[in-house]
Amino acid sequence: MTTETIIWLIPLPPALAFFLIVLFTNKNKALSHTIAVGAALLSWIGSMYVFVKALGVEHLGEHPFTSSINWLPLADTWFKIGVLVDPLTTVTLFFVAWTVLMIFIYSVGYHNYGQPAGDHDRAGLPPHGATIEAHGHKHTVPSVEPMYSRFFAFIGLFAFGMFTLVVSDNLLTLFVGWEIMGLCSYLLIGFWYGKKSARDAAVKAFMTTRIGDVFMLLGIAWLYSYTGTLNFREIFRPEVLEGMGNTIAFPKLANTVLVNIPALWPLLSSFTVAGTIGLLLFIGTVGKSAQFPLHVWLPDAMEGPTPVSAMIHAATMVSAGVYAIIRMFPLLNADLSGMSLSIVAFIGAFTALFAATIALAQNDIKRVLAYSTISQLGFMIAALGIHAYIAAVFHLITHAFFKALLFLGSGSVIHGMEHGVLHTGNHDVDPQNMFNMGGLKNKMPITFWTFLIGGFALSGFPLITAGFWSKDEILADAFGHGNIYVFATLAVAAFITAFYTMRQITLTFFGEPRTKEAEHAQETSWTMTLPLVILSVFAIGYGWVGIPEHFPLLGGLVPNWIHEFVGGTLAEHPEAVEFNIVPLLTSLIVALGGLFFGWLAYRNVNSPAEDKLQIPLLKNKYYFDELYDFLFIKPAYWFAETFVYKWMDKGLIDGILHVFDPITNGLGSFIRNYFDLPVINRFFGDGSADVTYWFGGKLRAVQTGRIQQYLMYALVAFIAIGAALYFFVFSV
Amino acid sequence: MVPLSWYLILSAALFSIGVFGVLSRRNAVAILLGIELMLNAVNINLAAFWRYGNVMNMAGQVFAIIVFAVAAAEVSVGLALVISVYRKHNTVIADEIDMMKF
Question: Do residues A127 and A118 make contact, with C-beta atoms less than 8 angstroms apart?
Answer without folding.
Answer: yes
